Every structure is written in structure tokens, then in C-alpha cells.
Amino acid sequence: MRLHELSPRPGAKHRRKRLGCGESSGHGKTSGRGHKGQKARSGGSIRHGFEGGQMPLIRRLPKRGFNNTNFKTVMAVINLDTLEARCEEGGVINEQVLRTMGIINGRNDGIKLLARGEISKALILEVDSVSIVAREKFEKAGGTLLLRPAKLEQTRRLKKGEVRIKRDRVPRSKKV
After folding, report:
1. Half-sphere exposure of 120 (CA within 13 A, CB side)
2. For residues 106 and 99, what is the distance between their CA atoms, to the nearest angstrom?
3. What is the largest CA-CA distance in the chain?
4. 0.85 exceeded by the pTM?
5. Residue 160 CA: distances (Å) to CA of 70, 106, 109, 164
6. Whole-number Å distance between alpha carbons of 32 and 18
7. Residue 173 has pLDDT above 80, yes or no
8. If you average pLDDT over residues 47-72, what whole number do you get?
């Protein structure tokens, strides 16, 4: 079968409903809109959730809970099996290298190494975070982990161009 032999199944395609083409067409005069009223007018659409002036359901229900999606930390995840399959022995791997290889993409706040799979190559890897098991496996294979220091970041999620310093979670000492 070739592309020019493909055709839609019988009954899958329909004629466009031609409106306003005379009374005998069945879609003349009011063109299927009924008589008068808001929905019969041009531009007469109502917004989603509008209930005719009655207090909408979304406003009748109480607000509950907390949502932190604007400020959450999004980490790009890489696993040991991916590094084993895609990287050369003894190579230095940082964010730019991972992006050019297509292992990570898009916007993120850092890179985290996880322990799925095994690794036998000795690599030098620069990441922001690493799981305990991944660190053990990586260093057992002879690899070197370089943890990037907390850096000043201006992310798209912060409002009005505020600058936030990302720090490790260290409890603050009481001020004397």
C-alpha cells in the first residue's frame, strides 16, 4: 500500500453544513441559531463557567490547600544506565555536553543523578544533586562527582524579576 492509495473509510467524511442558503435547505433564515436570545446574536457567546448571573460553582466552593507550582524546583534527571550507554570513558560531562547529546532539554533548575542501572566507566560528572545510591555506584566505578555550588538564578517562575539565591537546606542558627 502506498500513500496515494490511502483513503478515508466510508462515512468518515461529511459535507460542511452550509448555513443561510434559503428556507428549503433546512438551514436558512436563522441558520440553526433559533429565535432571538443572546446565543442568536453575533458575538453572543458566554464565557466558560458562566451560569446566567447565578453565583458560579467555582465561586460557591471554598478555597482549600496550598499550591507551590510557581516556585517548585524542576530538576533534570539523568540515570547511570544512560551515562553508561551514551558517554565515553574518562570524559568530562557537564550541562552543555548533556544538552548537545540530547540527554536533557528544556528549562530546569539543575541536574540530578539517579541510580537506575549500573555504570562501569570512570567519568567526571558535574551535577547539582545526586542520590546516595547513585553516588556510591558512580564512585565505585572510579568516577568523580563535581557538585555545582549554589548559584544566583533568575528564573521565569519568579515574578517581577526578583532574584532568589538557591541554597542547600541548612537550618538557620538563632540570632543572638
Report:
1. 1
2. 9
3. 90
4. no
5. 13, 22, 18, 12
6. 10
7. no
8. 91
* C-alpha cell read off for 133: 545510591
Domains of the chain: 73-165 (3.100.10.10)
- Are 80 and 116 within 8 A, CB to CB? yes
Q: Judge contact between 169 and 150, C-beta under 8 A.
A: no
More reliable by pLDDT, 91 or 116? 116
CA–CA gap between residue 110 and residue 108 (Å, rounded)? 6
pLDDT at residue 175 tops 80: no
Query: What does the pLDDT average to over 91-110?
Result: 91
Q: pLDDT for 23-38, tens place per residue?
A: 988 899 999 899 999 9
CA distance 9 to 21: 29
Residue 109 burial (CB count, 10 A): 16
C-alpha cell at 115: 541510580
